[in-house]
Amino acid sequence: MGDLTIPTMDDIDIRSKKVLLRIDINSPVDENGKIIDDSRIKAHIGTIKELVDKGNSVVLISHQGRPGDKDFISLEEHAKLISKYLDREVVFVEDVIGPYAREMIKKLENNGILLLDNIRLISEELIEAPPQQHVKTFLVRKLAPLFDVYVNDAFATSHRSQPSIVGFPLALPSAAGRVMEREVSALARIFNAEDTPKIFTLGGGKVHDTIRIIENLVRKRIADRILTGGLVAELFSVAKGINLNPKNMEILEKLGILSLIPRARKLLLSGAPIEIPVDYKVEINGNVMEEPASKVTGVIKDIGSTTAEIYSSFIKDAKVVVLRGPMGVIEDERFKSGSKSVLKASLEGQGYVIIGGGHMISALDKDMKIDSSKVHISTGGGALLLFLSGERLPALEALSMSVVNSSD
Ligand SMILES: Nc1ncnc2c1ncn2[C@@H]1O[C@H](COP(=O)(O)OP(=O)(O)O)[C@@H](O)[C@H]1O
Ligand SMILES: O=C(OP(=O)(O)O)[C@H](O)COP(=O)(O)O
């Protein structure tokens, strides 16, 4: 897979084997624990189908949420959805490494599919440690001997150095699944020096994460231009000395964003190519208005139409456009237009487009034409940005350490 030297499913003997397949079907759920978006489940169907069609028996593992959180639930509903999309039986096993799970795995016949329960029921899965340590966990020692091959298709979890991600590659012949392969090869294009200018459109609410990414992008000179939106734009506007009025400052303060001002200032003073909005769409007493950035009186909810136009013209000339995090509060239809404009310009432009993060993807309209040869919609959020900012992903490191073809 390019110069990343990661084995794919084409590089290992993977017919009529017992395969342990790590997927990421961690999905948003409602207050009753019901899955409300199953796009991550759908993404893995191709990999599962290919493995089953090659006569393998497949045991699926995934996490869902984190212990203590409302979305930390069993994978029973996930099994039903996988079964529906595959149009084959998927047996849900209410166990992970106990005798029942191991017996079910041993008994599994060719072409059979099991989904074990939430891997984070095993506390070891929450520990971040190197592969050499994780290969010694109960989780890996109990499961690895039951399999011939490990396949990791969980790109969206590849920034975690957890046992189910980094432990198994040291214990079994391993490969990247098709989702992982597609993600990495599409994203590796970003690092092609010839593909310039590269434009990063970064918005949304995870400002602490995003400033770290921007620091990496600037230090490594990866981005030719960074267009900011959402709360990220507000931070950089304040750092530039623009008065956003007390209402917006209060919101930024409550979210702990004001503490990031010194870092944002340092970036701006270093000459980083960071663009901020010249106007905003604001809400005043329930009404929507557009105001120049220097004279904001309402609560900022989106970039303004002049900013959307300027951003769109930059985007249209780019060779690579990366979009992550919406330009505004897209849950409210009235504040979706900034995100839609930059998405539309990206899809209409000549450049290669990478869209990540659940919110920006949900702003894509059904009638927006997506040319799959130049648009990559990533399953990843944090993993995507870390990869693009040049950080090494533990999942890929571990796969590159695995012994290819040792199953022969
Ligand atoms: N100006 C703004 N003020 C408050 N929240 C905003 C603003 N712009 C965007 N957001 C919020 O950011 C959230 C999405 O950000 P984030 O979780 O970082 O994106 P993603 O899910 O794509 O990774 C949305 O809930 C949206 O309402
Ligand atoms: O949803 C995920 O990450 P994301 O919110 O950054 O896309 C992955 O499933 C990783 O989950 P985690 O952040 O609980 O380790």
Automatic annotation (TrEMBL):
<dbReference type="GO" id="GO:0005524">
    <property type="term" value="F:ATP binding"/>
</dbReference>
<dbReference type="GO" id="GO:0006094">
    <property type="term" value="P:gluconeogenesis"/>
</dbReference>
<keyword id="KW-0547">Nucleotide-binding</keyword>
<keyword id="KW-0324">Glycolysis</keyword>
<dbReference type="InterPro" id="IPR036043">
    <property type="entry name" value="Phosphoglycerate_kinase_sf"/>
</dbReference>
<comment type="pathway">
    <text>Carbohydrate degradation; glycolysis; pyruvate from D-glyceraldehyde 3-phosphate: step 2/5.</text>
</comment>
<keyword id="KW-0963">Cytoplasm</keyword>
<comment type="similarity">
    <text>Belongs to the phosphoglycerate kinase family.</text>
</comment>
<feature type="binding site">
    <location>
        <begin position="63"/>
        <end position="66"/>
    </location>
    <ligand>
        <name>substrate</name>
    </ligand>
</feature>
<feature type="binding site">
    <location>
        <begin position="357"/>
        <end position="360"/>
    </location>
    <ligand>
        <name>ATP</name>
    </ligand>
</feature>
<keyword id="KW-0067">ATP-binding</keyword>
<feature type="binding site">
    <location>
        <position position="160"/>
    </location>
    <ligand>
        <name>substrate</name>
    </ligand>
</feature>
<dbReference type="GO" id="GO:0005829">
    <property type="term" value="C:cytosol"/>
</dbReference>
<dbReference type="GO" id="GO:0006096">
    <property type="term" value="P:glycolytic process"/>
</dbReference>
<keyword id="KW-0808">Transferase</keyword>
<feature type="binding site">
    <location>
        <begin position="24"/>
        <end position="26"/>
    </location>
    <ligand>
        <name>substrate</name>
    </ligand>
</feature>
<feature type="binding site">
    <location>
        <position position="331"/>
    </location>
    <ligand>
        <name>ATP</name>
    </ligand>
</feature>
<protein>
    <recommendedName>
        <fullName>Phosphoglycerate kinase</fullName>
        <ecNumber>2.7.2.3</ecNumber>
    </recommendedName>
</protein>
<feature type="binding site">
    <location>
        <position position="120"/>
    </location>
    <ligand>
        <name>substrate</name>
    </ligand>
</feature>
<dbReference type="InterPro" id="IPR001576">
    <property type="entry name" value="Phosphoglycerate_kinase"/>
</dbReference>
<feature type="binding site">
    <location>
        <position position="160"/>
    </location>
    <ligand>
        <name>(2R)-3-phosphoglycerate</name>
    </ligand>
</feature>
<feature type="binding site">
    <location>
        <position position="40"/>
    </location>
    <ligand>
        <name>substrate</name>
    </ligand>
</feature>
<comment type="subunit">
    <text>Monomer.</text>
</comment>
<dbReference type="InterPro" id="IPR015911">
    <property type="entry name" value="Phosphoglycerate_kinase_CS"/>
</dbReference>
<dbReference type="GO" id="GO:0004618">
    <property type="term" value="F:phosphoglycerate kinase activity"/>
</dbReference>
<feature type="binding site">
    <location>
        <position position="40"/>
    </location>
    <ligand>
        <name>(2R)-3-phosphoglycerate</name>
    </ligand>
</feature>
<dbReference type="Pfam" id="PF00162">
    <property type="entry name" value="PGK"/>
</dbReference>
<keyword id="KW-0418">Kinase</keyword>
<dbReference type="InterPro" id="IPR015824">
    <property type="entry name" value="Phosphoglycerate_kinase_N"/>
</dbReference>
<feature type="binding site">
    <location>
        <position position="120"/>
    </location>
    <ligand>
        <name>(2R)-3-phosphoglycerate</name>
    </ligand>
</feature>
<dbReference type="GO" id="GO:0043531">
    <property type="term" value="F:ADP binding"/>
</dbReference>
